[in-house]
Design goal:
- The chain is elongated.
- It contains ten helices and seven strands.
- The protein has a five-stranded mixed beta sheet with strand order 2-4-5-7-6, covered by helices on one side. A two-stranded antiparallel sheet has the order 1-3.
- The N terminus is likely disordered.
- By secondary structure, it is α+β, with helices and mostly antiparallel strands.
- Strand 4 and strand 5 form a beta hairpin.
């Protein structure tokens, strides 16, 4: 061992005595004490088991003797009752069988004790008990045999005299002997049980003193070993362990003490170098984890938003299709029952069917655009022609809804631009359908074109209830305000319109109609209708990947 420091010189081992030798000697003493304590324990347990076994045998024999006495009394009582009842017969009563079984069981127990006896004295004592058990069996068999002959001879005997004859002539000469033998069994077994318990008590006191002495010596030896062990090994190990535990819990600057004896000092130096490298690696790892966690959180937030949008999309499809389908079925039934309004009813059916087809087209277009599959076919387009086609297509649906759909006079000038004319027609149809849906019967929807040097536009105005909240939010996919939900809408049409406008480099806006709003830009509760305008640049534009992209 190396020096353990100036503070521990007084406790250091004496010169020439190695810590290993001291530990080995202490361990040897402890081993001897433990072996002595173990041998003493084994001997004590064996002795205790012997005494317990003797006491248990005595208690079993006492229980058997009590059972024999009880069975004997039941047997005598049963035979007396048979005679008092005027009955005879050779059949043995069940109480006789029970008594015989108890006697034979008693004799079997004694036979087992004879075989397990460890000394000649024990064996002779058990043989005397066997003689007594045989005597009990013999007395009972004699009583039962004479009782049987008595029953055979006295089948019609007088009850009282027969019972008296059985008691005085058969039982009385042998009863005292039988009961005396049972009493001797009880007395002997009680004495043996008491002796066994006394032996257990003496063994307990003796073992207590012996265990106390050995335990005291063991404690002193363990204390000496602990002192030696702590001074030589545990103190430096505890210091290193504390440093390792602090490092494991993430404590910054956790280091082992440098002033440790011998090899522990070199181990502490290596530990401190390792701790420095771990702290550097931990700092780098924490930075990487933070960056990747932020990226994952952002990605997860985006995925959750997409998932919520898709769930709302599929949940609202049935609501979007319910109203036109209901109209189709109702008008078809009316056409089948009517005779004079067939053409008008079928026209309304066709208009509602066209609306339903346009809504399905919107759904497919939005689904494809979210998957990145939709692309516009850019080329020469005429905005006025696209809007006119949309107005003509929506006329039937407007008539079925009892709405007047009007196209304002076309202003002079060209409405040609670079774009997808079919998509522009789809956008105009979506705005017109949306206006018709939210305009009450008897209302009016107007479509007006406008031209500027650098842009073209068209606006759809209605006489409906207007809208609530922020108009810009209505162009988000699946967004609905209170009136939209009441009308059975899903918020898909305006989302398609915004995407088409942005794909052409334009924009779509909404505002209150004449007399709408409260002066602050809020249109909740507006009764002056709404105006939605789509403006496009004349210059070519690059289409984005899809709505929300």
């Amino acid at each position: 061992m190396t020096d353990i420091g100036a503070d521990d010189e007084a406790r250091a081992p004496a010169p020439g005595r190695s810590i290993v030798v001291q530990l080995a000697g202490a361990l040897l003493v402890l081993a001897v004490l433990v072996a002595a304590l173990g041998a003493l324990t084994v001997w004590g347990v064996e002795r205790a088991l012997e005494e317990v076994d003797a006491a248990e045998q005595s208690l079993v024999q006492i229980e058997n003797a009590r059972a024999i006495e009880a069975a004997y009394n039941r047997y005598l009582l049963a035979e007396t009752r048979r005679r008092l009842g005027g009955g005879g017969g050779t059949a043995e009563h069940e109480t006789a069988g029970a008594l015989r079984g108890a006697l034979l069981a008693h004799r079997a127990v004694i036979a087992g004790e004879i075989e397990s006896a460890r000394t000649d004295a024990e064996r002779d004592a058990e043989r005397r008990e066997m003689i007594r058990a045989n005597g009990l069996v013999s007395l009972f068999e004699t009583i039962e045999t004479e009782a049987m002959f008595d029953r055979i001879e006295g089948r019609t005997f007088e009850a009282g005299r027969a019972a008296q004859a059985f008691t005085e002539g058969i039982v009385a000469p042998r009863d005292e002997s039988f009961r005396g033998l049972v009493a001797e069994v009880l007395e002997d077994e009680r004495a043996e049980a008491v002796a066994a318990f006394q032996g257990l008590d003496q063994l307990r006191r003796m073992l207590a003193w012996a265990w106390g002495g050995v335990a005291a010596a063991l404690v002193l030896g363990a204390a000496a070993f602990a002192v030696i062990f702590y001074r030589g090994l545990m103190h430096p190990i505890a210091s290193l362990s504390s440093a390792a535990e602090a490092l494991g819990t993430g404590a910054e600057g956790a280091r082992a003490p440098e002033k440790l004896p011998g090899e522990f000092a070199r181990l502490a130096g290596r530990f401190n170098a390792m701790a420095g490298r771990i702290e550097e690696a931990r700092a780098r790892l924490e930075g990487e984890v933070a960056a990747r966690t932020a990226a994952l959180e952002a990605a997860n937030a985006e995925l959750r938003a997409v998932d919520r949008a898709r769930r709302r999309f599929f949940a609202n499809v049935s609501h979007e299709l319910r109203t036109p389908v209901t109209v189709l079925l109702g008008e078809a039934q009316l056409a089948l029952r009517s005779s004079g309004e067939e053409r008008e009813a079928l026209a309304r059916i066709a208009a509602s069917g066209g609306f339903l087809r346009r809504r399905l087209d919107d759904l497919m277009r939005l689904a494809r655009s979210e998957d990145g599959q939709l692309s516009l076919r850019m080329g020469e387009a005429d905005l006025a022609r696209a809007v006119t086609r949309a107005v003509e297509t929506a006329q039937g649906y407007a008539a079925a809804s009892e709405i007047a759909l009007e196209a304002a006079p076309r202003p002079p000038g060209s409405f040609a631009l670079e774009g997808d004319e079919e998509a522009l027609t789809q956008a105009a149809l979506a705005l017109i359908d949306n206006a018709i849906k939210f305009t009450p019967p008897g209302g009016r929807v107007t479509v007006a074109l406008a031209a500027a040097p650098d842009s073209l536009s068209f606006a759809v105005s209605d006489t409906g209830p207007g809208f609530e909240g922020d108009p810009a939010a209505l162009f988000d996919a699946y967004a609905q305000e209170g009136t939209g939900r009441a009308a059975g809408g899903s918020g898909l049409g305006l989302a398609i319109v915004r995407w088409i406008a942005e794909a052409h480099g334009g924009r779509v806006t909404a505002r209150a109609g004449e007399g709408g709003g409260d002066g602050d830009g809020n249109r909740g509760g507006n009764r002056g209708g709404a105006v939605v305008e789509l403006a496009l640049p004349r210059a070519p534009a690059v289409a984005p990947a899809g709505p929300g992209g």
